[in-house]
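Q: Hi! First time doing this. I have a protein sequence and I read that you can turn it into a structure. Is that right? Here it is:
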Amino acid sequence: MVAKILIVIAMLIAIPLIMAAFIKKDYTVEQEINIDRPKKEVFDYLRLLKNQDNFSVWATMDPAMKKEYRGTDGTVGFVSAWESDNKKVGKGEQEIKGIIDGERIDYELRFIEPFAGVANASLITESLDENRTRVIWHFDSRMKYPMNFMLLFMNMSKMIGNDLSTGLANLKNVLES
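A: Yes, that's right. Below is the predicted 3D structure, encoded as structure tokens:
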């Protein structure tokens, strides 16, 4: 009887581990919004990483979060670090990794707590006409084995996508008011 119980327990552990070996590890989320402002004005605002504090959902989750900045904002290498007791915010940093002037800003997000991880994000601007700009917020990440098994039960497009959409709506509100 004990042997049968141990076999069942081993199978309950082995099945998810085996499944995780065949489940995707990468995921991408992208949201966009149109803003009634010229592309240069929108890009110049987005270029400054500190401005994300005015529209990002994550930046507003904990008004008491500790922030630290290193480098020159709006340039490659600038780092915005945060630390919060709120588990939804945690501890981490975001670094500007690349800028194509007027077009795109690439970031690397390094999460430290409550879970370690790395993600890449981009803010992309496209001119719709001389007074309207499309902003695309792109997010890529990866869940390591065996944690990628959780992707079967998590809708990352919805979870992260809702935060990106809210952030973009906040951005539109800031820039159009």
